[in-house]
Amino acid sequence: MPTGIHTQTDVPPAQLKIVVAGFKAQGATVETKLQADGNYTVIATFPDAAKTNPD
Amino acid sequence: MVEIVETHRFLVQFVILCGVAVAVMTFCGCRTGTMAGRPRPLAFQDTLTKSLIDKYSKPGAIPEDDTKVTEAQRNQILNDLIYLTDVNYYAFTSGLYEGRAVFDTASDLTMLGLGAAGSLTPAASAKAILAAISAGVAGSRVSINKNFFQDQATTALIAKMDASRKTQLALMQDAMAKLSITNYPLSRGLAQLAEYYNAGTIIGAFEDITATAGAEKAAANQSIKDTINLNAVRTTSYTNDDASQVLQTYWMPGQPADLTVNTNHQAMIQQWLVTNGIPDVPIQTLITGNLFADARKKAVNDLKIQPTK
């Protein structure tokens, strides 16, 4: 499973919901930022494996 | 955990050895008070070096429990030890330019350092590498003295050490900057520090004497590089090709209206990621990340997904 922060840039507005839903489906907390060109940057933060599985 | 403790013990000895080496080079080797081929050390260097040696010679200065070390602490410790290693190396190479006597002293210290590393470094492969290198120098020391320094090959030798050190340092700095404490724990950094130290020794310059050692070392470095590369692809730009659409629909059959995922298909894709060695890549990144065009085509093919009409 993914861990840490994964970023996807240049996401078109029409695709934003799908991309956000995709990251959330795997447990990420998602933040979006509007780029100057009208597209979005999606920042997905996944739980750290070390914190969730301390051993 | 035992390995981590052993590594830390080694590092403490290693730091002390660095200090001894620095002292020998500074106060005995540099007879004229100048550093041949280099500018004089900065005024604060001796004070800082002594301070760092004192700091890391104290019990517990390097945490024995890897899990309690933060990323900032890891980087601080590694940067301090890199500094000490650099000071030692510069003194050593300046001595090399001055001649054989200083080299003999440094050679003794180097072998001592390798001996300590060989008996205490955790990874078995690293032990083998260090033991091989250590044995190599013990056997060839006389001929090195006799041949190299009378053949005026010192500059070439130092150039080789510089190049090796540069590679090792870049790897460590990259890892410290880009990898989390989970992916790059202190123990791994300390093991790499030993490699960095060895890269700056005569023995390190001749490490190719054992092909096995070279191969194992390359594999270890490749592992770090792979991890760094994996982190590099954590930033992708959006792309939407045919394979993207096929995979997105396979994962979210009702999209774009219904964004519910098919959990069975999600498990299949996740398993594919694991099987193909990229378990850390989110499914969405696989589907719309620009760096994964080939991977998603393979996924569509491997999972035998048919495009929906």
Summarize this structure as a short list of keywords or feature phrases:
heterodimer; A: 55 residues; 2 helices; 25% helix; 38% strand; B: 309 residues; mainly alpha; 2 domains; 1% strand
Largest interface: A-B, 29 and 30 residues
The secondary-structure class of chain B comes to mainly alpha
Number of domains of chain A: 1
Tell me what portion of residues of chain A adopts beta-strand conformation.
35-45%
Low-confidence stretches of chain B: 1-5, 7-12, 14-36, 100-152, 208-213
Largest sheet of chain B: none
N/C terminus separation of chain B = 55 Å
Individual helix count of chain A: 2
Give the SSE order of chain A as H and E letters.
EHEEH
What structural class do you assign from the helix and strand content of chain A?
Answer: alpha+beta
Tell me the total number of β-strands of chain B.
1
Rg of chain A computed from alpha carbons, rounded to a whole number of angstroms: 13 Å
Beta strand count of chain A? 3
- Based on the structure, what is the oligomeric state of the protein chains? heterodimer
Mean pLDDT level of chain B? 68
Strand content of chain B: under 5%
Topology:
The complex is a heterodimer of chains A (55) and B (309).
Chain A lengths: L3 E8 L4 H10 L3 E6 L5 E7 L2 H4 L3
Antiparallel strand pairs in A: 1-3, 2-3
Chain B lengths: L1 H28 L15 H13 L13 H28 L1 H21 L3 H25 L5 H25 L7 H14 L2 H4 L5 H22 L2 E3 L4 H10 L11 H13 L7 H6 L4 H10 L7
Helix pairs in contact in B: 1-2, 1-3, 1-4, 1-7, 2-3, 3-4, 3-6, 3-7, 4-5, 5-9, 6-7, 6-9, 10-13
Write a concise synopsis of the structure shown.
Chain A has 55 residues and is an alpha+beta fold.
